[in-house]
Design a protein that fits this description.
The structure holds two protein chains of two kinds. Chain A is an all-alpha fold. Helix content of chain A is 83%, strand content 0%. Chain A contains seven helices and no strands. Chain B has a six-stranded mixed beta sheet with strand order 6-7-8-3-9-10, with helices on both faces. The chains are: A mainly alpha, B alpha/beta. At the A-B interface, helix 3 of A face helix 8, helix 9 and helix 10 of B.
Amino acid sequence: MGREQYQLELQELKNQMTSVVELVKKNIRDSIRFLGNRDMKGAGLVIESDEQVNHKCWDIEEHCIRLIATQQPVAGDLRFIFSVLQITNEVERIGDYAKGIARISRKIGAEPLIKPLIDIPRMGDIAVGMLEDALRAFSEGDSEAAREIPTRDIQIDILYRQVHRELLTFVMERPTNMEQCMLLDWVAHNLERVGDRVINICERVIFTGTGEVVDFN
Amino acid sequence: MEQVRLTTRDYSLFYGEFRALNGISLSIPANRITAFIGPSGCGKSTLLRSFNRMNELIPGVRTEGTVLLDDGDIFKEDVVNLRKRVGMVFQRPNPFPKSIFDNVTYGPRVHGVRNRSKLAAIAEESLTRAALWDEVKDQLHKSAMALSGGQQQRLCIARAIAVSPEVILMDEPASALDPVATIKIEELMNTLKEKYTIVIVTHNMQQAARVSDFTAFLLTDENRAGNMVEFGPTNRIFTSPSDRRTEDYITGRFG
């Protein structure tokens, strides 16, 4: 094994990725929880926490650029570093969706929810699970897992359509529900987008392992 | 399909009893730059020197298999003529202790060109192609030894070009040069490939990645014989090599 310092740096990149993904997962879960229990303070904390996500992403980007400039990575190492950059970008956007949900939560304000949240937390659970498994596939270089994970996105899409239909009936029932229904529909849309972003991450995991460019969307 | 300039088929080379190259089969495309990479002692320089039969100068050398230039067997060709067709540039610039002009026109004179104006035309053309003309045109009769290292190496390239070769072999042509002179040689190689087929041995992996179109990776086996592990377009070798050993070498995990 040559270039030990370099190997350590590549491992450190993985650790940095794990750290930011953990934070983003927490923010997604929290944003849905605080939406459900109308916790305005909690929603504010999620919004603040997204700054931290962004900083972690910038640190990763900076680390990648430094490695490219000083270590001239090639082949598998180059694909790895390039994928870290791309995946970080996806993770940063997923962080924005969590922040988006927290903002919606604050917009709904003191008003009680027109119905308890059922399908939205389900969407969140599936999306967070996909994200967690995608990161594990990346860390372990498991291309096979990365091919399987995107199939779960169908469940999120089905739930999204369900939520959408349900909210429409609430609007038809009572037009004054309109404002909140539109906001909740936007929450579901954010979670649907999280699934799509995780699919992009899976594509990058396969590229890292094999050099193959795939498109699951 | 690329037009092929040099071909080896199951080519092996022995220094006495020791097998230095083991069954190398490869096709070097015409008008492209092909780089040989691999750890020290893997046989890349030996393979390079096979193409103009430089190894024959070493006592006890024996070969098996075929080496073709275009379609002709190089071992059946007159060696002086072969070396005219396959020129060579070495690691350290090695100009003759003569004038710049005499260095460039040495080859053509050996091959029978006597006419003074013809020699002058060859000198200008070769030095221009080697990107040296503008720097030396007013001092052609100055000693070549007075030039800088980078200029000397370009002079050696001009000297190789002067006999109109088809192939130029370069054995670590920039390893004795500073980064600026190195970049000049690399840029020069890029323009030269329009007219010549270039084969280069380099220890500098980034140089192979920068300048070459094709890369061959050589490695010694358990008997210390050089084998070719992988050959392919440089872009592919440096992004997705197909052999684990290539990956390990170019990413610096061994070697």
